[in-house]
Design a protein that fits this description.
With 234 residues, this protein is α+β, with helices and mostly antiparallel strands. β5 and β6 form a beta hairpin. The protein is globular. It starts with 9 loop residues before the first strand and ends with a helix.
Amino acid sequence: MISDKSNDDGVAMNFTNKHPEFTFSWSRLCVQTRDDNKFSCAAYLRGLKSGGKSQQQRRELLVDVSGIVQPGQILAVMGASGVGKTTLLKVLSGLDDPSTLELVSGTIMVNGRVTTRNERLKSSCIGHVEQNQVFTETMTLHEHLIFQAMLRMQSLSMTDDDRRACVFETIKLLGLEKCTSTIISKLSGGERKRLAFATVALTDPSIMLIDEPTSNLDAYLAKSLMDTIRKLVR
């Protein structure tokens, strides 16, 4: 489903401006998890019958999920709470925890080529904005982005001046010029959302996966943020 509504739960964006064109697709994904931490009498009795060996319970989180994002598109993933939207985005980006989640079947492709979890995790062409981005609250916005640029751009052939220029361009792109010297703990909800976008946008990803971009924002801020997303796509 292609959507530009401001109340989308999850968004996949495919950039075309300044970026290589990628078609990002996933086919018939099935994801399960082990529910080891939940105790139940039935599981306990099954363990007794099997000589004390615990039997791990498995839950299906995603079943036969497919989708595709073409260059220049915004794809909205919508659904009720708990249906697996966050799980889908984490699996697509490679940020899923293999110790608790298992991709039982299905393929994730970039330009028709099947990718592995490690390839997606290490790739700079895929960015993931989490729903609740963690910041060092005592840093200023500018300090945070400089620090992130040093971490995220280590493998790129860039000088420190190049990284600082990239930070400046990203701040301007996200409309954060007025709060560059503001301590993160003092930022508004909308500014924190934009900072989360800026953090991921530093590496200029071709594909950006965004978990609940407008959550906890009022109508005005939600529209403003969606306008920013459309600007990034163009």
